[in-house]
Amino acid sequence: MVAGIRIYIEGGKQSKNSNISLREGFSAFFGELKEKAREKRIKFDVVLCGNSAETYKDFLIGVKYHQNSFVAFLIDSDNEVSEKDTPKSFLQKQEKSRNWNFENVENEQCHLMVQIMESWFLADVETLKSFYGQNFKHSVIPRQPNVEKIVKLDVESSLDKATNKTSKGKYHKIKHGADLLSKIETAKIRVKAEHCNRLFETINKNLT
Prior knowledge:
The protein is α/β, with parallel strands linked by helices. Helix content is about 50%, strand content about 10%.
């Protein structure tokens, strides 16, 4: 059994306080897994990093210093991932990761938000409606059973259009992202986002 679970997550170039907020949001998102880890006395750490390259660099350092833990990373794919590709093979083809050393990295350590974190929000429109309240325009959210197939630009534009006239204002990653992460139903996301489901299954396997 592993001593710990450490997930390094792309957080973008944000302030220290916003990173803390996103870490809390992801911690809530992984709530059921964290509870299982607690029951087994396994430490569960969510580590918010910078951009994807910084996240991967921090992940490699984590692998080096936490050899008794399961260490993985989670970044945006920014594009659709082919069914023929694993997360590792997908990243090895990307220009942004051409200088990354994957030699000693296992595929189960590589995880993707396909196509971006906000894609997950579109899988739970009911929570979006509840969060934004009156004037949330749910009709502009793409009716796609597989949210990973919604192009990144369409994810962003549909969220903007749906939230623009609400009292909370247009969707904002720092202002709204963490709260939404803590509220969306993971069961719904896992049904509509295969790579999210894979992440949960991988972590769960390392907790048993």
